Amino acid sequence: MSLSTPSSEHVSKAGYVVERVEAVAEPGETGDVHAPAAAREIGRYRHDGLFWRRLAYRGSTAGPEWWKRTSPPVIAAILFAAIAANRRGVISNLRRIHGSQGAVPDRWTALRTFVEFAYCFSETLEHASPYARPIDVEAPLEIGDFDRLPRDRGVIVLTSHFGSWEIAAHLMRRFGRRVNVVMAREANPSVAAFQLSLRERYGQRVLYSDSSPFASLNMLQALRRGELVAIQIDRSAPGQITRPIEFFGTPAHFQYGPFALARIAGVPLWPVFAARLGVRRYRILPEPLRTIPRDASEEDVLAVMGDVVRGFESHVRAYPNQWFQFAPFWNVDAQR
After folding, report:
1. How confident is the model at residue 119 (pLDDT cuts 50, 70, 90)?
2. Is a pLDDT exceeding 80 seen at residue 38?
3. 325 within domain boundaries
């Protein structure tokens, strides 16, 4: 499998390096990917099942350009109307971010979140095909400083369900390090093998956070090999430890594990997010590196967590419709 490399690069007026990134897969890699036989029948035709995921892939990769531009908002509107729980979750979160503007404006704003998600999802699928159009990715000039970090230790990349984190993770390959993406298993098992194949095309290795008691050991070993370990901080699986951190004026639960891992491994934390600017246009939003000494106290760790969350909050405030949390995030009773 070949990985994409920037085909062109120039500096924009705003001081960003703009790279044109080609498709990530080679011809012949776009065949159907099936989940295990036992899982295919469980939720296959649910809204997040394999049937619809494969259909979305076909439309995003083989459909005409007019379809790629017009179908995401239509499909987003259908899902917005059909999935009441997700609709209510997005409305609740947006009201926490910028207050309520009234029932109708709140729903309109929430619909925009569904539309942004549909476009990000569609372009992520398209980019995994060998014939996709290239995407333009802006990154600040100082992102090149990351390449000066020692190669004998890894880095924990902190990301979230914001914009297109898949494209951001793929761009990390520019630094010549293996990228490991930590995630829970798919909620719908019918799409597990399909999604795994797509991530492999991006050059990512998946580490399942809920695979075994040795999941943390796998992450630690990857860091000791000098690799990148990407972890999303805004969603946790059952049994994972979180801490309440102030977020838009109210405590919300964020993953504690990445910060504890950084302290144990003695590696830096690098928050990196990716916002969608337009058709096949993205901007990488890196934060400064953070470090947690091995002898740091609990208060020291929580201070770093608070600093990271404040940075994340600024990006959500700037792009509120690109934070793809479809359940109430401030529901403390549902958090661990």
Report:
1. very high
2. no
3. yes
Q: What is the pTM of this model?
A: 0.84
The CA-atom distances, in angstroms, between 87 and each of 38, 77, 315 are 31, 10, 22
Q: Determine the length of the chain.
A: 336
Per the structure, the complete domain to which residue 153 belongs is given by: 6-26+34-334
pLDDT tens-digit map of 219-243: 999 999 999 999 999 987 777 789 9
Residue 291: what residue type? Answer: T
Residue 248 lies in a domain: yes
Residue type, 160: S
Domain total of the chain: 1
Q: Please name the residue ranges forming H helices in the chain.
A: 37-40, 50-62, 65-82, 84-98, 103-127, 165-171, 192-201, 215-224, 257-265, 298-318
Q: In what helix (H) or strand (E) does residue 20 lie, and over which residues does it extend? A: strand 16-21
User: Interhelix angle for 65-82 vs 50-62, to 10°?
Assistant: 150
**Higher confidence at residue 107 or residue 135?**
107
Strands 179-183 and 16-21: unpaired
1 belongs to a structural domain? no
Residue 130 lies in a domain: yes
Report the C-alpha gap between 36 and 115 in whole angstroms.
31
